[in-house]
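User: Please predict the structure of the protein below. I'd like the answer in structure-token form so I can feed it into my own downstream comparison script.

Assistant: Understood. Taking the following sequence of 252 residues as input:
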Amino acid sequence: MTIRESFIDNQYKYNMKYKRLEPSASFDQELRNFHLFAALNDQEFARIRESLQLITLENGEYLFKEGEAAEHFFMLRNGFIKLLRLSVAGEEKIFDLISPGQTFAEAMMFMPNAVYPVTAQALNESAILCFDSKVFTSIIKVSSETGFHFMFHISKRLHMCINEIDNLTLQNATYRIVNYLLYQIPDDNKNTYEINFPIPKQVIASRLSIKPETFSRILRDLNRIDLITVKGRTIYIHNVDRLRLYSIGAVA
């Protein structure tokens, strides 16, 4: 067993709680509004609904680990999940931070003998909807419209991944942080905004491939020139338009 494997096994906590969700008109409508299920007929939707489970995790608990059979995909209902891998020496690299409403692990369902390529760990109390991949793929085989919805979803995800690679490889640390802050702001927001991060800053730094000390230094620099004010896990953006203009200059 390598140092990496030993580290994962020693840290692993499988205390997740499974629950069958009782029929509810409001919850069913919530699922119906989800784009992957928008084209399902009543019979197909009933199959999805029947196989659905709700998983609850406490802070630090794991949903799955790298190398396990990928038999389900998930949608985060509340909380935050980090997708990570560990180096041979046991150093953690965060590949994605999952926010409420996001799905993950759905791309694995069409791969033969698929395994999860990353480990999923809760960053706080989290509730996750768990879907059976076999049920969904069997529906896609007979529903071309659902298949096209899924292809559109995966294409968008691929486009986001390409942009992410561009940011991580071609842009400097300041641009990555500013761009990450701007990404948190809704499109219809006014010119000031307050971001309350429910997750530690070092987690965000790892997600952006930045050392924690560099992340803190850049936040201090942005604070010093009055673009933001940092108080604990809260960041106040004084002028969104000015921050966007600054991001253009940060590319250089």
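That's the full token string. Confidence is low (pLDDT under 50) at residues 1-12.
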